[in-house]
Amino acid sequence: MIARCFRFIFCLFYVMFSFSALAESQRVSAEVVGMCAFSRPNDVILDFGGLTPGQGDRSVMAEVSFSCSKGTRYKVELDNGLHFNKGQSRSRKMANTKGGDFLPYLLQSSLNSGTGHGEAILIPLKLSASVRGLDYLGIKTGSYSDLVVLKISP
Question: Where's the Spore coat protein U/FanG domain (predicted)?
Fold first, then answer.
């Protein structure tokens, strides 16, 4: 009986020792990367329509929405467009598609920077553009356009 009891204690000790020898801790980790994305990645069009000289200043607005990961700091950037005036006036310009003339315009964004609240919460961004009546009083008739890239970066 003592021999059986001794064998049982030895087996129990062996099993306990075996389990403790096999135990090992593993670290699990991940990094969540902040990102921003437009809700509808289509182009935003700011169209002044027909400008008749003498009508005065005109303004148009458009809105686009985006989301950013929760806690992600974002920055809104508008580039200078294709026909930026690098001189004293430093302004964006639309070019006549037939060439020759340019129409200066002002473009503004309702946001410059902020913090995201998660992918499910859209952040509205309003864009407004304006032209001065004096700027299209003496230019060639035709279609004028420019292309400005809007970027949201985390």
Answer: 27-109
Domains and CATH numbers, the chain: 55-153 (2.60.40)
Q: CA-CA distances (angstroms) from residue 11 to 3, 16, 18, 22, 111?
A: 12, 9, 10, 17, 72
Q: What is the C-alpha to C-alpha distance for residues 115 and 34, in angstroms, rounded to an integer?
A: 11
Place of tokens 């437009």: 38
* DSSP-assigned letters across all residues of 39-73: SS-SPP--------TTS--EEEEEEEEEEE-TT-E
- For 67-135, give the DSSP string: EE-TT-EEEEEE---TT---SSS--EEEEETTSS-EEEEEEEES-SEEE---TTS-EEEEEEEEE-GGG
49-78 per-position pLDDT tens digit: 999 999 999 999 999 999 999 999 999 999
pTM reported for the whole predicted model: 0.76
**Alpha carbon distance 136, 128 (integer Å):** 18
Q: Which two tokens stand for residue 71?
A: 């806690």
Q: Are strands 123-131 and 58-68 parallel, antiparallel or unpaired?
A: antiparallel
